Amino acid sequence: MEALTAHLSQLGHGLVTTVELTVVTTVGAMLLGIVVATLRIAPVPLLRAIGTAYVEVFQNLPLLALLVLFVFALPTIGITFPLFTSAAIVIAVYEGAYLAEAIRAGINTVGVGQAEAARAIGLTFGQSLRHVILPQGLRAVIQPIGNICIALLMNTSLAAAVGVVELTQAANNVNLVEAQPIAVFTGAGLAYMLLALIIGQVTGLLERRLAIVR
Amino acid sequence: MNKTQQILFDEPGPRAQRRIRIATVLGAVLLAGALAAAVYQFASHGELAAARWEPFTTWPIWRYLLNGLWATLRAAAATAVLSAVLGLLLALGRLSTHRPLRWLAGAYVEVFRTVPTLLLIYVTLFALPQYGLNFPLFWKLVVPLVVSNSAAFAEIFRSGILALDRGQTEAGLAIGLRRGQVMALVVLPQALLQLAPSLVSQLVGLLKDTSLGFVVSYTELLYSGQVLASYTHLLIQTFLVVALIYLVVNASLSKFARVLQARNGRFGGRRKRRAVELPPALLEGNTPR
Description:
A: mainly alpha, MetI-like fold, 10 helices, B: mainly alpha, 81% helix, membrane (chain A), cell membrane (chain A)
């Protein structure tokens, strides 16, 4: 226990970094997911192909390989960002592929009549998507999106492997000094479980408030 | 044209076709622009020089990378077998009629679904050795992966078992089978068939997880890439080739999962038709026609 309390600020910083990384990448991945899902259902074949390629590539590459490529290899062609930004970009791009698929599944649940009605009153593809399809589609997949956000939270720990000092790395650093692995790692594990619980509660709340009962 | 697209737009008329053509050209220009920017970026830093790519046409480099891939596949296979077995036991535990067993299995699954695998790897690397548990390198990667993947497998198995019609269990019990027998003879064979696509998709996730060997210095594909890059100084080329190998292997697995999915649909369809054909007398006048 002392190992935890003595390094509370260090662990706290790690926790804050994890939360920041999670929030920033969730927002980024959500926006990307909506764009990619839109591409995948667009009337233009080329755009559909781009959307499909995006999902195929980023669902089939290991996140760690992407992080290593981005952080260690891209500087050789002159592309450098601060470490936190790099990690955030890569995780957002990676999780965006998963969110795109979840959102597409949500769009599939919207009744054909809704889309037909939208067209019948003269809405364009973009308008019917924005005002009719997406609001309903997103509400149908709140639960899966919540699960992806929990996976995203766990994946932010991989940023540790390329040098971001977030919760996992902070716990590791503290343990290397204190040699109190049980207390330190259990503490970090509990923090992750707590964060996952919060995400689960928020999704549950959103689902109860927003879900459409058909 | 599948269902998704049909619900969102009609067969394009002349104006829509013109818009589609414009959007195609714009998209192509943007794509070409992005590619050109990438090529320029590579070229201006001398990374396109033939000498920097040529090594990847030689056998020694490929033999080294394929060795890494082989190690990746070995770790993935060991993880898959162990976590599938453990996951099945956990799922059965969660569905058991014994309260303590149910509670223990439930706690295991809930904990290890929400703790990052990397944290588990750090525990295996830095904590367990202090307590005399110093695994060989291979198991330092596989053990934490099994711990976290078995929780994921348990959830897949559980959902598959729960999704099966209750009548199947009731019928088994009615003909005098014990609960264990019903599970082994009736429920699991059907649930596993239905779950085959999800299980294969989970394999993709598991194979991606083995890249954490990078952290434990187990020479799987990603770490092999790292070693190779620090030896040849061909950083970006090596990691791009490594990414391409992952992409090919995992995309094939994903494709296999989709094939299984399609096949499952066909199985279901055939069963349904046969059920309709069997008692024609009962169904007369009931079939929608």
